[in-house]
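Quick sanity check, Redoxin domain-containing protein:
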Amino acid sequence: MSALKAGDQFPSDVKFDWAPIADEDPAACGIPQPYNASEEFKGKKVVLVSVPGAFTPGCHANHVPPYIKNFDKLQQKGVDLVIVIASNDAFVMSTAAHEDQQTAADGWGKVSGAAKGSKVLFMSDTKTKFSEKIGWMAGMGDRNARWAMVIDDGKVTYAEKEGSIGGVTVSGADAVLSKL
């Protein structure tokens, strides 16, 4: 499969991994389980953001915080969820599970400021399967490239990959907001 672009259908077999927190105790992580993105994205407008790694300086300080800070603006433009993916395992990206899937992240997400009830979710693109499938790898071993995609009820309406590993221009919250 080649890189996705505006107008393409989002693939029907995309799964990420997440490790739900069994209760309010952040040390009580559940077993990592699949998150069927193709199914969960149906009927929703989702911003899918890929970063090279959790807690890395560019991702942690520059790329992810504007998505959390500006979620209200994204929501005003019809966005239901922002999903942040990295090749880190599900425990690092762990997300607290609640019945309604309106979750707060623990691991990297909690440290990044995603509050309880947040619709900014942190998941693992385990072994970079999805990013590799679309050819958007960082070129630094098994790391995702930095990119952003908007999926509206199964159709890609925006998909851009950064030209450099450290850049946050076409994949940043401001760029995505300007295209919604």
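Posting the structure with no commentary besides this: The chain has one domain: 15-179.
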